[in-house]
Design the sequence.
């Protein structure tokens, strides 16, 4: 309830980015243009989803446009595979970009602008090594040492820069730097590198270039070329903002402005692309879309709906300070959405066989079951019933406590959509384990009533043994055992915090109609949780993923 109230309250008040946009509109801004700028060096995760919802969401709210721009300035780490996955994920979330661009589309323009800065005496070619450059930058309290090459003439710089571009020099032998201030209190202003030499093939420009622009030199100008009005990024870029402005002013080009919000962090979740890539490469997970990963494709595979992810982004809001969101909130959002849209089915994950002794052998009846009590239009289906059924082991207790309303010796329970059954006998093996229950049913109780009007409190789910479909069911738990996966003991690494029980496989017994559910579409296994067919599923070997439990269980236990 508290959560819903908060959401309502937030809908009425503006978040700080909306305030900024409304101020610009009040000052005469006619057009709102944002962009989402992923680097195609990995798959998008839930943090990116937040950024997508903000950038596309703001454009939509204010009648503006949002571009998709791939920040592809580092040919070594980037790949088309990532480009394709990023586009698929954004579309799946329900957004569409105005135009698709690549920072590499602007390499010619960026080069021309670099030449302009060289001519203005605002950039120079430096022959120092990376290490020397780093050493000579100084520290926050100690000013940097100017490079011996800092005072080259514009003519000499131009000649060298052209030759850098023409491939005359090896990697790392020269860089182009902006000539700003080697004693500036903002370290980024101490003659930032604009271009480095990388002799590598680029996934779009091929071998045309062997010099590549740095983020700080490329990002603001790309925004400017696209006439982005609000360039929204995460908080760690706030120190870059003055430099972003510096290049735009030095070049006297369209004045885009940058605004920062806090990145999304989630408990029990690793959001670093580099570390996620490591998990994939080392086989710690089944791939980028392993349902335990925080990636958008993993959430999709796990059965999350786009609406649940968008609602989550809305619920956590836009913060100015870094914080960590409880993973339980994401699960709350998917549970809320699935409760509305997911169809109900019956499946037993921990079976106990029940033989109904007074029911005809070989007989099958079909009971009508409601597909979704929250949505009448979802209709009904038929569920087969026979003499032998599975129930959940937990739904029977030999010596139950007082308020146990499920099955017990001599007790009666309602089988969901079907008959009342009474437990007459408990069958055990030599070790005393319960192997089977022998029950009788009330033939008059098939339509929710009973022969004499008696009322039975407990209702349990079940599956007919001879009709049951066996499936591999994957139960997922958080991938890490610690709220903060980077919280490590001495001598350990974040990988020591991987949860050995993050995926538990069990055999489930499903009602046959579950074979018709499309891959990725979540249904509720009544009383158990939400599940969807996995991409690994085949007609011979159905595989289901647990999307989320019905109740928030682990979050509380683990605290
Ligand atoms: P890296 O730069 O290490 O590869 P990144 O997570 O910054 O990783 P980008 O592809 O550069 O990845 O991110 C694209 C956009 O998504 C950026 O604007 C970035 O600020 C935003 N973003 C990335 N991570 C988060 C997060 N956890 N929460 C919100 N926004 C994020
Ligand atoms: Mg980045």
Sequence:
């Amino acid at each position: 309830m508290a959560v819903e109230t908060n959401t309502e309250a937030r809908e009425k008040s503006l978040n700080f980015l909306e305030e900024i946009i409304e101020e610009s509109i009040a000052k005469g801004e006619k057009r709102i243009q944002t962009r989402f700028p992923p680097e195609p060096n990995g798959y998008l995760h839930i943090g990116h989803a937040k950024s997508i919802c903000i950038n596309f969401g703001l454009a939509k709210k204010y009648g503006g446009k949002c571009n998709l721009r791939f920040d592809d300035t580092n040919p070594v780490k980037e790949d088309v595979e990532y480009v394709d996955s990023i586009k698929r994920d954004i579309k799946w979330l329900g957004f569409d970009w105005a135009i698709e661009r690549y920072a590499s589309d602007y390499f010619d323009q960026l080069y021309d602008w670099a030449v302009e800065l060289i001519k203005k005496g605002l950039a120079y070619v430096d022959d120092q090594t990376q290490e020397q450059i780093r050493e000579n930058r100084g520290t926050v309290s100690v000013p940097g040492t100017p490079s011996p090459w800092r005072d080259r003439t514009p003519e000499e710089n131009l000649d060298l820069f052209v030759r850098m571009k023409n491939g005359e020099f090896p990697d790392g032998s020269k860089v182009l730097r902006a000539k700003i201030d080697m004693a500036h209190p903002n370290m980024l202003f101490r003659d930032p590198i604009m271009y480095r030499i990388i002799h590598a093939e680029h996934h779009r420009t091929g071998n045309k270039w062997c010099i590549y622009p740095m983020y700080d030199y490329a990002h603001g100008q790309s925004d400017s070329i696209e006439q982005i009005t609000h360039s929204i990024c995460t908080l760690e870029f706030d120190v870059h903002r003055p430099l972003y402005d510096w290049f735009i002013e030095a070049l006297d080009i369209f004045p885009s402005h940058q605004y920062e919000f806090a990145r999304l962090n989630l408990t029990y979740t690793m959001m670093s692309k580099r570390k996620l890539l490591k998990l994939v490469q080392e086989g710690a997970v089944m791939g980028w879309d392993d349902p335990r990963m925080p990636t958008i494709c993993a959430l999709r595979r796990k059965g999350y709906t786009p609406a649940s992810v968008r609602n989550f982004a809305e619920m956590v809001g836009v913060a100015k300070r870094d914080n960590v969101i409880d993973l339980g909130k994401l699960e709350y959002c998917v549970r809320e959405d699935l409760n509305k849209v997911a169809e109900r089915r019956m499946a037993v994950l921990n079976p106990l066989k029940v033989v109904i002794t007074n029911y005809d052998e070989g007989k099958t009846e079909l009971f009508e079951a409601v597909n979704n009590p929250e949505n009448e239009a979802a209709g009904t289906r038929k569920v087969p019933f026979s003499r032998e059924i599975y129930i959940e082991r937990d739904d029977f207790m030999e010596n139950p406590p007082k308020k146990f309303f499920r099955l017990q010796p001599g007790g009666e329970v309602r089988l969901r959509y079907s008959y009342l059954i009474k437990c007459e006998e408990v069958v055990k093996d030599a070790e005393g384990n319960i192997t089977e229950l022998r029950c009788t049913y009330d033939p008059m109780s098939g339509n929710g009533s009973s022969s004499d009007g008696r009322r039975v409190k407990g209702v349990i789910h079940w599956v007919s043994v001879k009709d049951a479909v066996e499936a591999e069911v994957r139960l997922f738990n958080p991938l890490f055992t610690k709220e903060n996966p980077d919280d490590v003991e001495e001598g350990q690494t974040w990988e020591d915090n991987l949860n050995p029980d993050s995926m538990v496989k069990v055999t489930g017994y499903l009602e046959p109609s579950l074979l018709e559910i499309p891959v990725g579409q979540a249904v509720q296994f009544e009383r158990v949780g939400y599940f969807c067919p996995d991409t690994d599923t085949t007609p011979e070997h159905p595989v289901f993923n647990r999307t989320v439990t019905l109740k928030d269980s682990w979050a509380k236990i683990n605290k």
